[in-house]
Write a structure and sequence with these properties.
The protein is of the alpha/beta class. Helices cover about 45% and strands about 15% of the residues. Helix 23 links the parallel strand 15 and strand 16.
């Protein structure tokens, strides 16, 4: 069992315990352990075998024993017993947006509803509305949540699809018959959610069946949908469909471009090729009007030989278009004119902001977060724990602020000698009337303030927009966090006029966060080009509640690239001294 599966089971145990009404600290311990194991840089097997697992912060004796059992036996009796003690449908029910464990307990106890279908029936005949604490509005929201859940069925978070793809890619590349191998599709374009994962391998025709056989027998394959000599489709553990095509090495760049997509981008490229007397498909270029069938294309090859995707673009008089931009949103016109931006790279990031600690709902101390940031090679770390209205996250009360800032300053002095700056920030709630959760006097003590909406999501667009715009006018606000509040595949963005919000950020000099947590990836990539045109800077932030969450920074860079951003557009590509100057200038 790999660490991703161990983390998944620990996460599910936390959910099951929550459903049973267990102690919230126990529930949180399993969720924190899941985050820790999922983000481990060390080999989990080695930690288990050497007994070093117990040394990880947050992994006590009981958790260590359970993780060891999972790793060594591929199952956990405690997990099996928990599942057996609850109707399986309850876990499915809490996937409904806004329908948590406590509500699931109530409807199960009062109405014997133990599946989404029974819950839906109870809503439609009005029984949910009659329950204490629910009402007509709750009943309507549950029905909308069920509809939303069904609409998202078959979609997967980017990071889960990527984790599955990288393992398969490594296995295919290890095969001696493989010449070149890549994943394609929406995963390669860095879409925030993925339907399935496409793989391409180039090989000699005689070797294709062996590669297909390797693919269908990979660990994690739970069923085979189709299996041919050059194509195969399987379902992976977790429900992700994976498809493989084996092509000749001469066809590989054409197939990679074609199966990367998007459909709209491919159509635009084919139109451009036709204007030059060429026909373009997944096998190569042919003279316009001379398309071959699949067998003919494989036999005759391309009339213009291309070794790479760069060669294909050059043949059509275009600069190379990175995969993230291939959405038919102006990239072809920009490539024709030589105006594509030099996109940000992971290596450009020098630091980050929006990190939580044990002062509120984080799993680790500020010191531990600093050590992890240093190990990643970052030059600075911005801590931003929750403000007091976030009581469920143990938000900082007014009288806790001096101690929080004092500890941050002390650690900054210590780590500064080691090459890491630590900034003292706060994630301050935007209240429903647009004011902030602390007085200006308190906010003035921080190096920076990230303003965020955490409740009141059902406001109409005009009211929500006015609420956020009012908060942005406060001179203490440095950044706007997760601007639309969405949780991918779980909670829709709240109604807000993002154009007006971006204009307000431009007016007041507020930075917009690209929240790189894989469940958020908010602000949406489609808005970044407009924000860039308005001169608004981006901060790629992990919303880290533990050191493993720093790994999401790489995903954030992918989304920033998709939004056409360069290193000059992203504030945390600046070195520490320049970032400090930016923060000070904003406070003035």
């Amino acid at each position: 069992m790999d660490k991703a599966k161990v983390a998944e089971i620990l996460e599910e145990i936390g959910t099951l315990l929550d459903l049973k009404g267990e102690n919230p600290f126990k529930v949180r311990a399993y969720h924190n352990a899941a985050r820790l194991i999922g983000g481990l840089q060390q080999d989990l097997g080695a930690l288990v075998e050497t007994g070093q697992l117990r040394e990880l912060k947050g992994i006590g004796e009981a958790l260590s024993e359970k993780i060891t059992e999972l790793w060594k036996t591929d199952r956990l009796k405690y997990h099996d017993d928990l599942k057996a003690s609850l109707p399986s449908g309850l876990v499915e029910m809490i996937a409904i947006p806004g329908f948590g464990p406590k509500r699931a307990q109530v409807v199960h106890k009062k109405l014997k509803a133990d599946s989404i279908e029974k819950l839906e029936a109870a809503c439609k005949d009005g029984r949910i509305a009659q329950l204490e604490g629910f009402g007509e509005k709750s009943q309507e929201n549950i029905l909308q949540g069920i509809e939303q859940l069904r609409r998202f069925a078959g979609r997967h978070h980017y990071h889960k699809a990527l984790a599955a793809a990288l393992g398969i890619l490594e296995s295919l590349r290890e095969h001696p018959a493989a010449i070149r191998c890549e994943y394609a599709g929406s995963l390669r374009r860095c879409r925030e959610t993925v339907g399935d994962v496409d793989f391409l391998v180039s090989a000699k025709e005689k070797d294709a069946p062996a590669l297909i056989e390797r693919f269908v027998r990979l660990p994690g394959v739970i069923s085979i949908n189709a299996k041919g000599e050059t194509k195969s489709s399987v379902v992976l553990d977790g429900g992700i469909q994976a498809d493989l095509r084996v092509v000749s090495d001469a066809q590989f760049p054409f197939a990679l471009a074609y199966f990367t997509g998007s459909k709209e981008h491919n159509i635009a490229l084919r139109v451009r090729a036709l204007a030059r007397g060429l026909s373009l498909n997944e096998y190569g270029f042919s003279k316009a009007g001379k398309d071959k069938d699949e067998k003919g294309a494989r036999d005759t090859g391309s009339v213009i030989q291309c070794r790479t995707e760069e060669d294909i673009h050059e043949a059509m008089e275009l600069d190379y278009i990175p995969p993230e931009l291939r959405e038919e949103m102006g990239e072809i016109e920009a490539a024709e004119k030589g105006k594509l931006p030099k996109l940000i790279e992971k290596e450009n990031l020098r630091g980050t902001f929006h990190c939580h600690s044990t002062w509120t709902d984080g799993a680790e101390t500020i010191g531990s977060m600093a050590v992890a940031a240093q190990e990643l090679g970052l030059d600075y770390l911005g801590m931003a724990d929750h403000s007091k209205s976030e009581f469920q996250a143990r938000g900082l009360k007014d009288d806790q602020i001096p101690g929080y800032i004092a500890e941050t300053r002390k650690l900054d002095r210590k780590f500064r000698k080691l090459g890491l700056r630590i900034f003292a920030g706060i994630e301050v709630d935007i209240l429903e009337n647009g004011s902030l959760d602390y007085s200006d006097k308190i906010l003035a003590q921080f190096d920076y303030c990230i303003a965020a909406v955490h409740r009141g999501f059902t406001m109409d667009e005009m009211t929500m927009t006015a609420r956020i715009v009012k908060a942005l006018a406060n001179p203490h606000v440095t950044m706007l966090a997760h601007p639309t509040g969405r949780l991918l595949l779980s909670r829709e963005a709240y109604a807000v006029d993002m154009r007006a919000v971006i204009e307000a950020c431009a007016k007041h000099g507020v930075i917009i966060e690209l929240n790189s947590h894989p469940w958020r990836l908010d602000m949406d990539w489609r808005w970044w080009k407009f924000a860039k045109e308005r001169g608004v800077k981006c901060a790629i932030n992990p919303d880290a509640h533990g050191t493993p969450d720093f790994q999401s920074l790489a995903i954030g860079v992918g989304i920033a690239r998709k939004g056409w951003l360069t290193r000059d557009d992203v504030i945390n590509c600046l070195p520490a001294d320049k970032v400090e100057a930016v923060l000070k200038a904003r406070r003035k």
